[in-house]
C-alpha cells in the first residue's frame, strides 16, 4: 500500500544537525496520520507521499521549515520566588508564573488576554539557568534556529480508521515532538537540553 491521504504511516528516522551530529535516533518509529493533519513536518510528508514500505531518503529542513528561527525575546529572567521547590535546569512550565506584586489592573488585563488566547497553543518555557534569586527561562524550542537533517525509512503503511481520521491522529497516538524531553529522568533532560542548545550555537545567559 502506498502512502496517501488518510493512511497511518510508521517512519523510522534519525535526526541530526547540519554537521551530522546525531540529536535523536529512537528505537521506536514515528507513527502519524498522513494528509495534512500536522502529525509531522509538511516537507517530510511531501517527501514520502506516494511511497511504499522500504522507501528511505534523507532531507534537510531549514529553521523556517522545522522549529522556526531563534527568538531572543522569548528568553526571560524571572525572580526565583515565583517558582516552586525543587527547581532545576531542564524543568518546563506553561507560561511564566505571575508575580505576587502584580497590580489588580494588570491582572485583569492578563486575564482578558488569556481569554482571548484560550484556543492558542500554550507557550512552554524551559529553565536554562538557576541562581540564588533569579531564573532564566527560554520559550524557544531547543532546536529553534537550527537546520535539521532527517533520515527516514517507511516501516509500515495502512489505511486509517474512521475514528483516527475524525480524531486526526493514530489510535492511542499522541502529538509527536521531535527533540523534546518527555518522561526521562531529570539528568537526561538536562543533558539533552545542553546538547541541543550547544549544537545550536546559542550561549544561554548566566547569572553567575
UniProtKB/TrEMBL annotation:
Family label: Belongs to the FKBP-type PPIase family.
Region of interest called Disordered, as start-end residue ranges on this chain: 95-118, 163-189
InterPro entries the record matches: PPIase_dom_sf (IPR046357)
Enzymatic class: isomerase
EC numbers for this chain: 5.2.1.8
Gene Ontology CC entries for this record: cytoplasm
Protein name: peptidylprolyl isomerase
Protein keywords: Chaperone, Cytoplasm, Isomerase, Rotamase
Residue ranges, compositional bias (Basic and acidic residues): 163-172
Amino acid at each position: 500500500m502506498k502512502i496517501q491521504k488518510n493512511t497511518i504511516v510508521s517512519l523510522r528516522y534519525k535526526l541530526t544537525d547540519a554537521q551530522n551530529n546525531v540529536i535523536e535516533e529512537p528505537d521506536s518509529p514515528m507513527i502519524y496520520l498522513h494528509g495534512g493533519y500536522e502529525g509531522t513536518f509538511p516537507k517530510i510528508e511531501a517527501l514520502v507521499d506516494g511511497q511504499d514500505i522500504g522507501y528511505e531518503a534523507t532531507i534537510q529542513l531549514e529553521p523556517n521549515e522545522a522549529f522556526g528561527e531563534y527568538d531572543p525575546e522569548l528568553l526571560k529572567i524571572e525572580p526565583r520566588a515565583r517558582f516552586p521547590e525543587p527547581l532545576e535546569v531542564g524543568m518546563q512550565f506553561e507560561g511564566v508564573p505571575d508575580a505576587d506584586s502584580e497590580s489588580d489592573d494588570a491582572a485583569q488585563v492578563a486575564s482578558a488576554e488569556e481569554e482571548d488566547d484560550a484556543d492558542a497553543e500554550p507557550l512552554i518555557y524551559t529553565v536554562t539557568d538557576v541562581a540564588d534569586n533569579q531564573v532564566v527561562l527560554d520559550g524557544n524550542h531547543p532546536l529553534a534556529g537550527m537546520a535539521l537533517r532527517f533520515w527516514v525509512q517507511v516501516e509500515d503503511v495502512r489505511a486509517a480508521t474512521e475514528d483516527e481520521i475524525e480524531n486526526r491522529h493514530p489510535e492511542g497516538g499522541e502529538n509527536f515532538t521531535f527533540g523534546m524531553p518527555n518522561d526521562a529522568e531529570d539528568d537526561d533532560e538536562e543533558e539533552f537540553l545542553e546538547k541541543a542548545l550547544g549544537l545550536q550555537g546559542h550561549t544561554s545567559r548566566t547569572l553567575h
